[in-house]
Amino acid sequence: MKNINIKDYSKYVDEKIPKTNYFKNSFRAFIVGGLICTLGQGITNYFNSIGLNNEEVSTVTAIILVFLGAFFTGLGLYDKLGKFAGGGSIVPITGFANSIVSPAMEYKKEGYVLGVSAKMFSIAGPVLVYGYGSAVIYGLLYFLFTK
Amino acid sequence: MAIKKMGNQTVKFSNPPSIISTASIVGPKEGEGPLKDYFDIVLEDDLYGESTWEKSESKLQKKSVNNALNKASLSLSEIDYIFGGDLLNQIIASGYSARDLQIPFFGLYGACSTMAESLSLGAMIVDGGYADKVVCVTSSHFSSAERQYRFPLELGNQRSLSAQWTVTGAGASILSSNGNGPYITHVTTGKIIDPGIKDVFNMGAAMAPAAVDTIITHFNDTGFAIDDYDYIVTGDLAAIGKDILLDMTKEEGLDLTEKYKDCGLEIFDNEKQDTHAGGSGCGCSATVFNGYLYNLLINRKINRILLVATGALHSPTSTQQGESIPGIAHAVSICTNIS
User: Fold this and answer.
1) Which of B89, B141, B154 is the mutation pick for testing A, counting most A CBs within 10 A?
2) B29 SS3 class
3) If you compute the radius of gyration of chain A from its CA atoms, what whole number of angstroms results?
4) CA-based, 20 to 30 A from A63: which of A98, A139, B163, B292?
5) Which of B44, B62, B81, B94 is nearest to B174 (CA)?
6) How far apart are CA B325 and CA B54, in angstroms?
7) Which of residues 256-295 of B touch A (CB under 8 A)?
8) What number is the average pLDDT over the span A7-21?
9) d(C-alpha B63, C-alpha B58), whole Å
């Protein structure tokens, strides 16, 4: 067989890969992501109406959405929603719950220490590290330039 | 002197071993696919009554070996060696099944090429006079492969369109120095070809050049023509790999279009079963060969095939370290008649 030129081959292979339908994916993500956020807004409005202050309302809304994300992951439904909606169900806080609960369930067979708890953050870990990291940098810049 | 060697990478057997019995077991999804009637057992539950996916996969192997033995009315003690492999780290599905089978064991790792690798080595051992009967077995399991190579099952992400679906299943072949075929007549052992693909969701493209190289070498070494074969069957190149293979072989002057099949495209209906590019895994060529193709051979619907199982020899570690995916393909020439 002739030698393969890696660059040419990679270009040739790229043309063979079926193209993602970005419009369809974005539309689904918009609808599902929008519905999750609307649900969050509904929860917020409800707790506002019964007299909780803004900080308490944010906390309660986050708790409920994280619970729902975890609950539907446990029922084996969130992965199906994710397959349909893509970013629409990954980006909201319910997706964050899914990214923690799904490895926790998957690695339960390896025990509670080296399985569940060690693997729990295998997907969410990088988000936490770089999320907190960038928050610290942003906080420092804010401190330096506004004080 | 290597009197049985032919050309650069091929061996021609002087006493071609017979494949006297085979068995195949698949999971529920494979059991809904186009080949469902050819498998011996279709599982209703892919945990197979076990507590982990790994144990389930190991049981698939054990069961397929026992099934193949039963079909040939043989007992475990009549088997000289078992050649087994799978996709799991340290090939535990094979190790644990061989622990229970108590047959002298050679553990193999050739990723998804393992079925052809085990048939190659098994046939060499039998032809060489080192054994009368050997079992070749391989397996893969969608769920044990996902957790090792990819993501947790319940993670809500989308699979890439070029991704393949690991087959849940195991297949076993019993090779014997005595028998009425189908016979393994030639084996062409592949070299590793690495075309520089790094995308683990595009393994067809990573393995296709290796399959092309092995097929061309096989024809050069043996002097066979394409028309000598009814089918030339690759293991799991799937939709993208198939296109690439047909393009590349054409460039080399071989038009395989009429004769070519791929186990990864035979086992699933990609449109209906949402398997994207097609099936993959050691179990893919193992179940399609031991179920479907063997059936066609013994019923004389076809007479000669070239089984070219393809493997991607990467690991999650090599991928994370930015290495490309080395591809390999081994060819086994199987014929119903050697007179």
Assistant:
1) B154
2) coil
3) 21
4) A139
5) B81
6) 24
7) none
8) 94
9) 9
pLDDT digits (tens, 9 = 90+) for B273-302: 999 999 999 999 999 999 999 999 999 999
Q: Distance between CA B212 and CA B190 in Å, rounded? A: 10
B256, two tokens: 């395989």
pLDDT in tens, B96-128: 999 999 999 999 999 999 999 999 999 999 999
Instruction: Please name the residues in contact with B116: beta carbons below 8 A apart, sequence gap of 6 or more.
Output: B110, B235, B285, B307, B308, B309, B329, B330, B331, B332
Residues of A in contact with B154 (CB under 8 A): 73, 76, 78-79, 98, 101-102, 105-106
Amino acid type, A29 = A
Residues of chain A positioned with their CB less than 8 A from the CB of B210: none
Q: Rounded to 5 degrees, what are φ and ψ at B28?
A: -60, -40
Rounded distance, CA A29 to CA A126, Å? 23
Q: What is the pLDDT of residues A17-47, one digit of tens each?
A: 999 999 999 999 999 999 999 999 999 999 9
Are residues B65 and B207 in contact, defined by beta-carbon separation less than 8 angstroms? no
Which ipTM did the prediction report? Answer: 0.91
A17:B161 CB<8 A: yes
Classify residue A116 by its DSSP letter: I
Q: Left, alpha or beta for B169 (phi > 0: left; psi -120 to 50: alpha)?
A: left
**Residues contacting B267, CB < 8 A, separation 6+:** B30, B33, B34, B35, B167, B278, B279, B284, B287, B288
List the structure tokens of A101: 């609960």
Distances (CA, A) of A104 to A34, A100, A112, A114, B69: 27, 6, 9, 10, 40
* DSSP alpha helix (H) spans, chain B: 53-71, 92-101, 114-127, 142-149, 203-222, 238-251, 263-266, 270-273, 282-287, 294-298, 316-320
Residue ranges and CATH numbers for the domains of chain B are 5-176 (3.40.47.40), 183-335 (3.40.47.40)
- As to burial, measured by CB atoms within 10 angstroms (0-12 exposed, 13-18 middle, 19+ buried), residue A121 is middle
